[in-house]
Amino acid sequence: MKSEEVIVKQVMETANLPIAKPNDNISQILPTMVNRRLGLIIIMENGQFLGIVTGGDIQRTILSNEANFLYLKMEQVMNNNPISIKENASLADAEILFKKHGIVVLIVTDDNGNFIGVLQK
Question: Would you say residue 11 has pLDDT above 90?
């Protein structure tokens, strides 16, 4: 099957996504991030998507020589405007976004713009 024939919702991840709250700190989420092997944490509060923290975000925080990086809150390191794609978009469209933005994960939304999952490269 060609990538333009496959749609995002057929291959996106929705189950058991690692979720944290904006006030959780890095030391609280690291075990979840490592154990789930997904390389990201979804930041939500009261059922609303707020952003995403990736392994790259954590690495950049460490490299910025932040002395107490383990105690930084998710809201301090999260990307609150990640690149997203609609669930009915083609996998070919997703591949274009991955390349264009140099990223490895896309937030998947429904037709109303609500968070429903993630797509990894």
Answer: yes
